[in-house]
């Protein structure tokens, strides 16, 4: 080891450390306080959850594939969000859902709320990357108008980055499009109950139902899928199902005047079943139908129930949804608790049936319910163009864009596992 020259050591000029350390500390405190002051500027719109500036995309945490419960989180207001991922000019948006054109007062703010899971992040999906990654694929949305709401959101997001689109209706679909540069098809198959159903009237010659006093109702064949989607499992590579809203709809299936009458193998089920038990049977049979006929590598997803936010009565009782920002956890429980048996109770009741029947199946559950329960502000409400407030469907652009972020995160998670 080389020896040090003692003359160099003693001749070196000693620099006082105290002034230097003081300067460094003062500078650090000044910078911290400056950043804190910027972060504490209040938002123009307060939130019952929390609100803060969203960091740039590059600095956000990435989705932890397969390890994050996306349903556990809160809505945060993104003051930097300047516009939606697509705008109100997308022609596929149903007029009643186009809240910009309907002049809904908070239409611009709806898209500024972002769902933030507690233990990871849910980034907005990249439509260009998605088109490239799912080239030569077909996606089928099967269900009621809430699945159409989600289908339109996905179409408009993809259409904003790819103009060459062919319109057609594959496999009995109500609507469908192929993005020609990528050979990616997305389609919507409309079905209210999944099972085939139609008007039923008593036979003059009598029968099992007639002997019980039934004169008319709706025949529901629990073992036969509605023709609008019967071919979908063998056609699509990715399937996303929903059902539920029509099962708790006394205005459509009056339990006295026009009840649901369930049939199996062409014969009425005796004794007659209540709708909730009928739902179980339909789910069981339709899940088996899909698993027997879908492609061997098909991705099968079942979306949970989309919540309604009627307050002061149901849609035909003067109910409305006037809120302009997400509601609190306490308000969510007041609206949706099964124990309260309120106007919107079917949301969690349907999910109980879904989870019970889907357990052990080859379906992946897409849970959008809890995060959507907070969004009483995101319905068309009185801007929907109806005689009553629309507190069931969602404004577009809007909440179903987040559903698709979650849907596509699931797809990538499944792909990575496989």
From TrEMBL:
Localization annotation: Membrane
Keywords, in A-Z order: Membrane, Signal-anchor, Transmembrane, Transmembrane helix
A single Gene Ontology CC term: membrane
Presence of the UniProt keyword Membrane in the record: yes
Every Trichome birefringence-like C-terminal domain range: 122-409
Ranges in a coiled coil: none
Gene Ontology molecular function: any one: O-acetyltransferase activity
Family the UniProt entry places it in: Belongs to the PC-esterase family. TBL subfamily.
Protein name, UniProt field: Trichome birefringence-like N-terminal domain-containing protein
Organism for this UniProt entry: Acacia crassicarpa (northern wattle)
């Amino acid at each position: 080891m080389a020896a040090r020259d003692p003359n160099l050591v003693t001749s070196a000029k000693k620099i006082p450390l105290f002034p230097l350390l003081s300067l460094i500390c003062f500078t650090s405190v000044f910078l911290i306080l400056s950043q804190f002051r910027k972060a504490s500027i209040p938002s123009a719109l307060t939130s019952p959850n929390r609100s803060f500036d969203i960091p740039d995309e590059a600095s956000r945490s990435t989705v932890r594939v397969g390890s994050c419960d996306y349903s556990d989180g809160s809505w945060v207001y993104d003051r930097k969000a300047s516009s939606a991922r697509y705008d109100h000019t997308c022609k596929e948006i149903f007029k009643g859902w186009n809240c910009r054109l309907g002049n809904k007062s908070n239409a611009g703010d709806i898209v500024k709320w972002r769902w933030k899971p507690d233990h990871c992040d849910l980034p907005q999906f990249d439509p260009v990357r998605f088109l490239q990654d799912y080239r030569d694929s077909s996606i089928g949305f099967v269900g009621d108008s809430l699945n159409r709401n989600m289908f339109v959101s996905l179409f408009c997001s993809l259409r904003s980055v790819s103009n060459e689109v062919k319109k057609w209706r594959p496999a009995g679909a109500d609507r469908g499009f192929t993005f020609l540069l990528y050979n990616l098809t997305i389609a919507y198959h409309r079905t209210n109950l999944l099972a085939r159903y139609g008007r039923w009237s008593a036979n003059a010659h009598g029968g099992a139902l007639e002997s019980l006093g039934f004169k008319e109702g709706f025949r529901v064949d629990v073992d036969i899928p509605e023709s609008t989607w019967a071919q979908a499992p063998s056609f699509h590579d990715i399937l996303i199902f929903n059902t539920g809203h029509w099962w708790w709809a006394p205005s459509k299936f009056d339990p006295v005047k026009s009840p649901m009458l369930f049939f199996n193998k062409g014969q009425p089920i005796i004794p007659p079943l209540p709708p909730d038990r009928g739902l179980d049977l339909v789910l069981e049979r339709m899940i088996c139908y899909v698993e027997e006929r879908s492609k061997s590598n098909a991705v099968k997803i079942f979306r949970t129930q989309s919540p309604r936010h009627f307050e002061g009565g149901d849609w035909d009782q003067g109910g409305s949804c006037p809120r302009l920002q997400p509601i609190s956890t306490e308000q969510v429980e007041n609206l949706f608790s099964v124990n309260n048996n309120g106007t919107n109770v079917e949301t969690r009741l349907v999910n109980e049936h879904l989870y019970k029947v889907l357990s052990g199946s080859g379906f992946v559950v897409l849970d959008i319910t809890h995060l959507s329960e907070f969004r009483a502000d995101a319905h068309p409400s009185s801007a929907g163009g109806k005689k009553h407030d629309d507190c069931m469907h969602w404004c577009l652009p809007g909440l179903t864009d987040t559903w698709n972020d979650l849907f596509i995160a699931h797809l990538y998670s499944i792909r990575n596992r496989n």
